[in-house]
Here is the input.
Amino acid sequence: MADETATEKSKKEVTVKVLVPIPVAGNIIGKGGEGIKDIKKKCTAMIRVSGREELFPFAEERIVLVVGTADATLQVLDIVQEKVRNMGREEGGNTRNKPRSNFNPRAKEMKIVIADSTAGRVIGKKGDVVKRIQTEHNVQVRLTGKEDWGAVPGERIATISGKDPKQVSGAMKDLLEIIVKDPDSSLNKSLVYPSYPMYDMYNYYGGVPPQRGYTGGNYQGSRPPAPMGGAPPPLYNGYQSDYNPPSSGRGRRFI
Here is the structure.
């Protein structure tokens, strides 16, 4: 019976979305769509890439939708990770003998959109599951909160970062196994999110973007603080952001 259950789980379809920098999305699609066709042949998973104007807000990144078994999905994620790590190798001078990840921290990250319920399982009781994944694979795992400013209802972003792509892949495999076990893990397969009204952050912060102009303490709540002691701006009911201005005043990019 246990073997049957394992077999059923191995065949269960999972759905994940991955955020990728704009140049990487083009590399995934390839000239005339040949790149994405080749991935489909190798991995037997359904894969779609959002259009040029369908960017994840605050991240300026496109979305890759992957639907398939956990094994097929991991194959796609490994290919995506390789392309993310190799992006812009021509930048930063002579990189012939140096991986791109030495120059761009984003090249070491995989940003995976998962369901709220899955995020809870990834964290585990008192954080025991996420701590185990980080320790076993020597990676960092960050999850956005469902009450964060800009959160997408029902969705969270798991960012897995590490120097070794094999370790990141191992952590992604653990993540997919958790998704398989979650009966509520299904995501909306749309790559286009509805627009939501949002306060004008430039005017609210006196014409200075909050990620550069805010110099107060760390913000860990669901809304960015008011710069002059007033009421905080309203919650944004659209896309997820990872805005957390550091106490040093230096900017931190979204997502």
Summary: DSSP finds nine helices and seven strands in the chain.
